[in-house]
Amino acid sequence: MLIIANWKAYIESVEKGKKLFAAAKRLSAKHEIVLAPPAPFLGILAHGNRSKVSFIAQDISRTTGGAQTGENTAAAIREAGATYALIGHSERRAMGEDNALVAKKLQHALAQGLTPVLCIGERERDAEGQYLAFLREEIESAFASLSQKERLQVVIAYEPIWAIGKSAAESITATDLTEMVLYIRKVLADLLPGRGASRARVLYGGSVEPENARALAQGSGIDGFLVGRASVEPDSFAALVKAVTV
Ligand code: PEP
């Protein structure tokens, strides 16, 4: 599985980051582990990395360099050692990032050879199923200006906002996740050539913990997880990874 550890702003010391990186290396034999440190620590940990663990930026700039104070461009992120970029995380969208900006960032990431992980997810579920149209729109608008070849590189992270930062008990059920993955692949089938939709990597994020990881992984059709809180303590992250190791 592809398991992304989103450290958000939980990690504020290099020492802690190094400990988590060392622990991740021990977990990377059977899974692709990708770490998302805060930007100041990305280069420190990722530059010259030769381990099986990979790195992902939590966000990239809307700009492509030059006189842009405070920006972390896709080129600089790649140079720092990341190979992936999270795009459109709900915590960025909450700061005003819209679908148009998400589409632009996807292009910047791809232009620099970073594999984009496109985050989508509804704020809440309505009985009429409007949230399904909302998710379709998030995917379609992100893909609109990409070539077929570029679209095939995008990883989708389905992260319902109502499930983020809660507990395993309040997370999505395995049954609902299975339905959502089918729906996302159906949307992708209209946008990707050939067998692209079945081959696309679809992840789930939102209160994945050691307690629910196995149930969510089994038979739901997902290719991995995007993990927040449970990824910032070595013990809980190790327990989560072990839970999905058969
Ligand atoms: C996230 O915000 O990407 C996330 C998955 O967070 P958590 O695991 O803490 O719900």
Description:
This protein has 246 residues and is an alpha/beta fold. It has one domain: Aldolase class I (TIM Barrel), CATH 3.20.20.70. It has helices spanning 14-27, 39-46, 74-80, 90-93, 99-111, 130-143, 148-151, 174-189, 196-199, 213-217, 234-243, and strands at 2-6, 32-36, 54-57, 84-87, 115-120, 155-158, 202-205, 224-227. An eight-stranded parallel beta barrel has the order 1-2-3-4-5-6-7-8, surrounded by six helices. Strand 7 (202-205), helix 10 (213-217) and strand 8 form a beta-alpha-beta unit. The longest helix is centred in the last third of the chain and has 16 residues, at 174-189. It is globular and about 50 Å long. The site of phosphoenolpyruvate (PEP) has 13 residues, from strand 8.
Specify the biggest β-sheet.
8 strands, parallel, barrel
- Name the helicity range: 40-55%
Q: Report Rg.
A: 17 Å
Unreliable residue runs:
none
What does the overall shape look like? globular
Beta strand %: 5-15%
Query: Which small compounds were modeled alongside the protein?
Result: phosphoenolpyruvate
Judging by the overall fold, what is the CATH architecture?
A: Alpha-Beta Barrel
- CATH homology superfamily: Aldolase class I
Give the CATH topology: TIM Barrel
Strands across the major sheet, in which order?
1-2-3-4-5-6-7-8
Count of helices?
11
CATH class categorisation: Alpha Beta
Secondary structure tally: strands: 8
How far apart lie the N and C ends? 11 Å
Mean pLDDT across all residues, rounded? Answer: 97
Could you state the order of secondary-structure elements as H and E?
EHEHEHEHHEHHEHHEHEH
Structural class: alpha/beta
* Count of the separate structural domains: 1
